[in-house]
């Protein structure tokens, strides 16, 4: 995503802070599962590699809160050791705060590409001649997305609390379509159910989208055109300011994301072979789409999907695990 990428406030970690370095060193390596399929795919592949190749004990930490994940990485005591879904630039504030000389987390260098924007189905785009974000402010076209007859379309901006959802509120206003739509912030599962229903009924759906994502393997989606990314067109005020929305402005597409992994600095001494592995592991967008499709659409348990993916890609795994 990511969504984003692009994620929510959620479960707090219950782990007690370790009181000694030795206590932290004895703990299993903790890997984040944020509950969405793309990050689950990469997280469980990493878990399987650590267990199968190095024999290290691992544990999965379920939390949907990106700030909590980064705070736990920065504690550097085993609360969370590995986070496999760092979207840049979305998570740049956390990278700036918690890596380098400022913190105890390390951003792994390998990355793969991610995209973000607005998507609709190809059938809707072609039937209603909707190809650009500016088409969403055309009163003659928004009826394609008006499912309840109230004269407004419905557009999904993301889940409440996702970092990207705040950006989407700004973009909806600055692209000029906010007043024509009900700006929805629901769980992603609710949005996907609405998309699935629209596809089956042959009606319109539009919303925030990001890749990699299983929906690109499941549906025929097209991304709406936007002005090319311009860093000077992004002026985003921190959401702690009560007037952040009024003070912020966005007038161009996202920069294509680079999706990295991050890990706690203590891994370099606790499990140096794991830290070295994380500096070699990278995926392609399509590979993560495949993993996410298996988990979210085929309902394969994430751990099983990861093992199947590893078995199907021995050459890639061999490159990652070579001495």
From TrEMBL:
Pfam families: OpuAC. It comes from the Bacteria. The keyword Signal applies. This is Glycine betaine/proline transport system substrate-binding protein. Residues 1-23 form the signal peptide. GO terms for molecular function: transmembrane transporter activity. Residues 28-311 form the ABC-type glycine betaine transport system substrate-binding domain. One of its GO terms (cellular component) is ATP-binding cassette (ABC) transporter complex. Keywords: Signal. InterPro entries: ABC_Gly_betaine_transp_sub-bd.
């Amino acid at each position: 995503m990511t969504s984003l990428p692009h994620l929510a406030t959620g479960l707090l970690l219950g782990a007690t802070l370790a009181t000694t370095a030795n206590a932290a060193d004895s703990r299993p390596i903790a890997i984040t599962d944020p509950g969405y399929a793309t990050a689950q795919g990469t997280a469980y592949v990493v878990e399987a590699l650590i267990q199968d190749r190095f024999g290290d004990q691992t544990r999965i930490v379920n939390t949907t809160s990106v700030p909590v994940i980064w705070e736990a990485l920065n504690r550097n005591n085993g609360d969370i050791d590995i986070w496999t879904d760092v979207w840049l630039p979305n998570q740049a504030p956390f990278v700036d705060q918690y890596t380098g000389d400022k913190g105890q987390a390390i951003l792994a260098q390998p990355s793969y590409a991610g995209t973000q924007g607005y998507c609709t189905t190809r059938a809707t785009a072609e039937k209603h001649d909707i190809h650009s974000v500016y088409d969403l402010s055309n009163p003659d076209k928004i009826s394609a997305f008006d499912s309840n007859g109230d004269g407004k379309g419905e557009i999904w901006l993301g889940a409440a609390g996702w970092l990207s959802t705040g950006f989407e509120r700004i973009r909806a206003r600055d692209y000029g379509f906010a007043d024509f739509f009900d700006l929805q912030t629901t769980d992603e599962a609710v949005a996907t159910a609405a998309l699935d229903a629209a596809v089956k009924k042959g009606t319109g759906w539009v919303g925030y989208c990001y890749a990699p994502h299983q929906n690109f393997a499941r549906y025929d989606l097209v991304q709406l055109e936007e002005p090319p990314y311009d860093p000077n067109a992004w002026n985003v005020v921190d959401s702690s300011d009560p007037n952040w929305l009024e003070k912020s402005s966005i007038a161009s597409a996202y920069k294509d994301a680079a999706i990295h992994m991050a890990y706690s600095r203590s891994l370099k001494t606790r499990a140096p072979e794991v830290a070295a592995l994380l500096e070699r592991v990278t995926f392609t967008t399509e590979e993560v789409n495949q993993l996410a499709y298996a988990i979210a659409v085929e309902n394969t348990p994430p751990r099983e999907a990861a093992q199947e993916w590893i078995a199907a890609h021995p050459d890639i795994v061999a490159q990652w695990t070579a001495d």
